[in-house]
Amino acid sequence: MRKELHASSEMKGRLIPFVQDGDYFYKKAMRAYQQRNLDKARQHLERAVKLVPEEVDYICQLAAVLSELGEYEASNEWLKFVLDDLDPEYYDCYFFLANNFAHMGLFKQTEEHARIYLKHEPEGEFMEDAEELVDLILFEQSEHLPQEIGEEEQLIQEHEAARKAIEAGHFLEAIELLERMTEVYSEFWPAYNNLALAYFYSEQYEEAVEVLDDVLTKNEGNLNAVCNLTLFYDFLGQHVKRDVMLERLKNVYPIHPDHSYKLGSTFGFLGEHELAFHWLRKVESTRHVWDVPFYHWLAVSAYQLNRPDLAKRYWKKVQTVDAKNEMAEHYLAELEAGTLHKNQVSYRSQMPQEVEESDGKHDYHARMTHLMLLYTRRDPEGASILQTYCKRKDEPLLVKELSAYIAVTLADEPVQIIDDEGSYTVRTQTDFPEYVRSGMRVIAELEQADISDSELHELIAMIWLPCYVKLSNSSEAFQNVKATAASMFYMWHKVKQTNITQTEVANAFGVSGSTVYAYRKKLTRLLETNDL
After folding, report:
1. Could you tell me the domains of the chain?
2. What are phi and psi of 64, to 5 degrees?
3. Which residues cross the membrane (predicted)?
4. How far is the C-alpha of 329 from the C-alpha of 170, rounded, in Å?
5. Per-residue pLDDT tens digits for 469-504
6. Mutual orientation of helices 292-304 and 326-337 as an angle, nearest 10°?
7. Which of 151, 165, 298, 421 might form a disulfide with 174, Cβ 3.0–4.6 angstroms?
């Protein structure tokens, strides 16, 4: 005992280093795993992988834990990362992939990966398990499975078709395909993420957010869902929710290049240029083949960080990938002339709006729909983004007026509008033209109708907004607000092919059937006229 005390005395005052290296967290993870605390094991393994990203054993153990947690897609991504980037001869990964595919019901991939494992490891540790998987697949094929495999292949084809439909702007077609997929494969997360995008691009914002909320409830670590939801909140002006998600993203440290790619682009669109550059630059040296958006995002983030020479290099790489790329040519010309300003440089991998006029109509319509979404939600938090619209010189006056009206209504504060002729301040609703005030009174009537919020937003985008834009061109007002609202409500139901009569609509809005008929004819003629 005295000897121990003496030794302790000698140690007194000395600093004992406590090293939290990868091995330390790996051992903690294994203890948690043995105690069946899988969430804790996952956390420690993620720390270990972050510290030693090239350690295959750490990654495979993380993949195993993710698999036990039911996160098969995430597990597979790590296993593919090992095979693609670290050790293509680590054949155990093929068995682990086969096992995950079996749990996902993807039997064709199960058999394929199990056979690859058996080919390279005929006497391997998992040989018997792999053979059992293959035997099970063969038995099921002979007894039950031909139809299921056909359905699986059809699912893959439909997912690709849905993705192409989104790219082509056929959002309703994509939604139909993706909704069917999510019903068949409840854990096929890429379909959910694409479904959310299709909803969002078709301006069904609430549905888009609901899909991603559902994904993150069931699959908390789904990075694509976190990134997309953060961008949705930013677009919708819900800045408190956006900032919460943004802080969550700042604590993510991906190892897989695809995750770094997604994270970097998301930070870019959120204006976090330093983080965007960090994560995009981190994956530049991998052997993946990068595309035009990747190099453009790197160029933009570099330029925003006051590194024009580096931005120039990346825009030239855009031209290497696409020799006829007009966007890169435009930015390089402005850069050489010394006329490229930061506020002109966008992460959008297309021509800037002042150059690409054909894209303006879509942006214009989407922005107006966004404004009405902020209004119907009565969200004071959106006032800041509305103030921004009012001060943009290149924003159409129609957008500025509507933004200012909503901002005054939500925040009850003066709003400054800047246009080509100078600036002026609006303080109350009476400061606005009559077509703005009457248009918003129509919205107030529609809000009283017996429809859901998402249906109201659809009606606004489909019927009210085109009529409002037409009237604004002639500075005319909606004469009879109740009759106009009733007519729009009836027209929307006819487009939806709903079984409702004109008399029923008239009674609901407190006007006569003949008045609804007259105003419906008037609105139809208005929509058929050419823009002034």
Report:
1. 200-344 (1.25.40.10), 359-431 (no CATH), 441-528 (1.10.472.10)
2. -65, -45
3. none
4. 30
5. 888 766 567 778 999 999 999 988 887 777 888 889
6. 20
7. 165
